[in-house]
């Protein structure tokens, strides 16, 4: 029996797109943490090679992102998101069948195509095409659902790995794309259909100021750098501050709930304010957390994780809502792709850069990400609502 949208289309669209996004993130961004070691061992390689292949995937996603966004602007998100599911499935199947490291790298490059066409930027552009400047609520809604991607993805990948093996786990994720995510994305409105009446700012207007675009691109790159650096090295950083291994792991587990809690706050109280206000508040959270960690050491591990996670949760939403609020819905998809391209490239290098800093400076490496956070906050204060 085919699913049909109920009368409350907004809740329906947010739900199906949020679930599809959860699958997209869980089967790409979050599988190296579980599958990289056995994947590399089967070829006699170090896991570093698999993470290097994943970095290539992020570079590919940065390259394809502007094209995917422009395509969504023209024809709507349904077709692009459905195509991304087919590409994800093809890339995962190639990983599963890879007879050599060269084919493994090719599989990750194909997954990178899917990431550029099927993750948050594409979903945000799809919602902007449907709702115009009223898309802030739906954007927050899908990030609330997809915020559980690691909560769902890591255990499911681990279960498939333990039961069948890493190749079969990749096949499992490919089948989930084909038989769950693809039908869900097929439920989105066809073409460039709008659910709400066009807003005055959705018509073509003068191009945004170049300085504002560069400032926002810098903010996205800086915050993605910090987010990825912490995702890769948080336990080691907290141990360098004096926390035990158990405390470092427990503190790291708080980041996900902190992100979701902050997104609930954005969905409720903070939605009354301009997205710039919540973005400025969120960008300042990591530098504040860094100061607490340096001053108080290991006992501040939990506070650091909560502050960093909360800021990161709101900034993920800001990546979709800020360009919409500042520049309008016309050309939103292509613009979002270009704004996020530097972020994707820097994200690919973040684990290596911060890892080298942590190995050289220990806890003092946190000043690197703290300064990046301060600069991002300053850039947000230079931006104006109009």
UniProtKB/TrEMBL annotation:
TM stretches of this protein: 12-36, 48-68, 80-99, 105-130, 142-165, 171-190, 211-234, 240-265, 286-307, 365-383
Subcellular location: Cell membrane
Keyword Transmembrane: yes
Keywords: Cell membrane, Membrane, Plasmid, Transmembrane, Transmembrane helix
SUPFAM superfamilies per record: MFS general substrate transporter
Classification via InterPro entries: MFS, MFS_dom, MFS_Efflux_Transporters, MFS_trans_sf
Record membrane topology: Multi-pass membrane protein
Gene Ontology terms: cellular component: plasma membrane
Listed PANTHER family: CHLORAMPHENICOL EFFLUX PUMP RV0191, PURINE EFFLUX PUMP PBUE
Protein name: MFS transporter
Species this protein is from: Neotabrizicola shimadae
The organism's taxonomic lineage, starting at the top: Bacteria, Pseudomonadati, Pseudomonadota, Alphaproteobacteria, Rhodobacterales
């Amino acid at each position: 029996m085919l699913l049909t949208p109920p009368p409350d289309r907004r809740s329906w669209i947010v739900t199906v797109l949020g679930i599809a996004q959860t699958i997209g993130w869980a089967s790409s961004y979050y599988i190296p943490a579980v599958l990289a070691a056995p994947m590399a061992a089967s070829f006699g390689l170090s896991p570093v090679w698999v993470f290097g292949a994943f970095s290539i995937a992020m570079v590919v996603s940065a390259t394809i992102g502007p094209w995917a966004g422009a395509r969504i602007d023209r024809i709507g998100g349904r077709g692009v998101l459905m195509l991304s599911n087919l590409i994800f499935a093809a890339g995962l199947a190639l990983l599963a069948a890879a007879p050599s490291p060269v084919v493994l790298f090719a599989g990750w490059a194909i997954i990178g195509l899917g990431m550029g066409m099927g993750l948050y930027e594409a979903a945000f552009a799809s919602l902007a095409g449907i709702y115009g400047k009223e898309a802030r609520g739906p954007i927050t809604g899908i990030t609330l659902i997809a915020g559980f991607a690691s909560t769902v993805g890591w255990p499911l990948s681990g279960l498939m790995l333990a039961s069948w093996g890493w190749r079969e786990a990749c096949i499992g994720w490919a089948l989930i794309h084909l038989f769950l995510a693809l039908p869900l994305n097929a439920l989105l409105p066809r073409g460039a259909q709008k659910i709400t009446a066009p807003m005055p700012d959705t018509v073509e207007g003068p191009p945004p100021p170049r300085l504002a675009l560069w400032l926002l691109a810098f903010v996205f790159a800086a915050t993605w750098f910090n987010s990825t650096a912490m995702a890769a090295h948080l336990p080691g950083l907290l141990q360098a501050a004096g926390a035990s291994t158990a405390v470092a792991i427990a503190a790291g587990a708080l980041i996900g709930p902190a992100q979701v809690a902050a997104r609930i706050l954005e969905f409720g109280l903070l939605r009354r304010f301009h997205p710039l206000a919540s973005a400025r508040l969120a960008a300042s959270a990591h530098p504040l957390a860094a100061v607490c960690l340096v001053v108080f050491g290991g006992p501040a591990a939990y506070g650091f994780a909560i502050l960093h996670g909360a800021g990161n949760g709101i900034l993920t939403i800001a990546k979709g809502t800020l360009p919409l609020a500042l520049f309008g819905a016309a050309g939103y998809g292509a613009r979002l792709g270009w704004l996020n391209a530097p972020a994707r490239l820097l994200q690919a290098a973040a684990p290596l850069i911060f890892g080298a800093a942590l190995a050289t400076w220990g806890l003092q490496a946190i000043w690197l990400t703290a300064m990046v956070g301060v600069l991002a906050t300053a850039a947000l204060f230079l931006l104006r609502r109009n």
